[in-house]
Amino acid sequence: MELQKTIMGQYMLLNQEPTLKKIAADTGIQITRVFRLFNGSTMKLSEYQIFQHRVKEKMGLTDTLEEMAFDCSLKLSPEAIKDIEIYLRRKMEIWKIKHASTQKNKIANLLSA
Amino acid sequence: MKDGLLIIERIIVESLSKKERNLQEIILDTNLDHSLLLNILPNLLMKNMIRYTRGTYSIEKENCFQWLNEINKTDNIKEEAKELFISLVNQYFKKDCIKLRAMEPQLKIQKVWLTRDEELVLRSHMASLDGFFNGVKASRRVKPEREKTCEQRVVIWGLSQYSDLVDGVLEAV
Questions:
Q1: CATH numbers and ranges of domains, chain B
Q2: I need a surface site. Which of A69, B3, B100, B125 has the fewest CB within 10 A?
């Protein structure tokens, strides 16, 4: 229920409190169903996904790494997911090392200035 | 030690496996800069792979079989091989206006149908290549040159049937 409240709250905020009619037109969910959702009925997973997609679209997050990673986590095999995890983890390890050395250089430059 | 060594850790381990070195010598041998090394070396020290004594770094020989077995596990080597190959491909396709790289990388991929005899010739060439590199390594052991770890050439070659590679891509999802 919490997730449902969050996603509906985000949707309303991003769309500037639209009317039930506009929500129904935007999501493709019947207006009477929209009314029930906003009055305490439990969302179906498919309805949640529709709201979530709309929210992400509004936030410009449709094609990002986050979206891709989520999609992969739902659709790919465990082995494929592990491959991607390992690749990303190694990238992050290298980033951490580079970042730490850049920070040290900055501090050293500041101290010697 | 998850995922084995990163390429930047491996080059340091390779450098120290030849001889113990101080920081400046590691910089010259690996071409990694000072601040980067100051972040990698403590990690290797913590993993008990290297030791630091009187200003020099060296391989930790006491438990080396333990950590060598770990970093050289098939899965870990596989990740390092992928990292090297991806880097080679990226280097080859990088469009540099100014030449920033030490040498122009080469990359050749051939897709060709071979008769049985031609395949034997190919495998024989690949075996000769292997022999050539083994000979070079043996020669270095007998008559070392002033070779730097970072100046080594990385040569990658392999052979597979096209359909096996395609199947592999399909399986990897």
A1: 1-79 (1.10.10.10), 108-173 (no CATH)
A2: B100
